[in-house]
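Protocol step 4 of 6: record predicted structures for both targets in the notebook before any analysis. Target 1:
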Amino acid sequence: CALCSTSGARRTNFHVDHVNEFRFLVAEFEEEASPGRALTPAKAPEGWAAWHEERATLRVLCKGCNLRRLRPAA
């Protein structure tokens, strides 16, 4: 775990987490790529995968740290 250094072999005990909240990445993409149009879960707009790959910073957290960490307000 990137926060508490817990380790283990069971994948189910760990989550992959966005360092910067995913919802903020989505909002930033919406603003840059298609102002006024919201992303829909059914089909990501063209360019989303590459944009996410370039800008998202991911980390591995244990379930406990990920579920307990504070989330910034909207």
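Target 2:
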Amino acid sequence: PTYMLIEFPQYLAKDNMRKHERYKTKIPIHYNKIGKPTASATICDLSLGGALIAHTDPLAAGETIQITVEWKELGVAQTVLEATVQNVRDAAHTKKGAIFSGVMFWNKADKVPPGLQQIVDHLVKESRS
């Protein structure tokens, strides 16, 4: 009779399927939907192409938001990033009613805003040390 033997792998490789590497962080930000009041949030991970943000005001996939980030210790003045909400994760399992949304930044002509580049460079340096 014919048989099949299935083994567990000896190692697991993690492959990054994103265009840009993401870095864990906790950066307080403010965001607003176009024409709406400003709300507070936190960037949980960040890359040159997008971020995962934790917030309490509801967002929907496809919405356009403006994110304002400032990091005085790095010398980053207020940088405004336009982004599109790509996905919204279920908030039922989170603490304190936080909602997590993935956003993709709009980079005009592949130019990264200097403030964003400076923050990501700092996170790259931190991750290597």
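Step 5 preliminary note on target 2. The beta strands are 23-33, 39-46, 50-55, 64-71, 76-89, 99-105. The chain has a mean pLDDT of 86.
Proceed to step 6 after PI sign-off.
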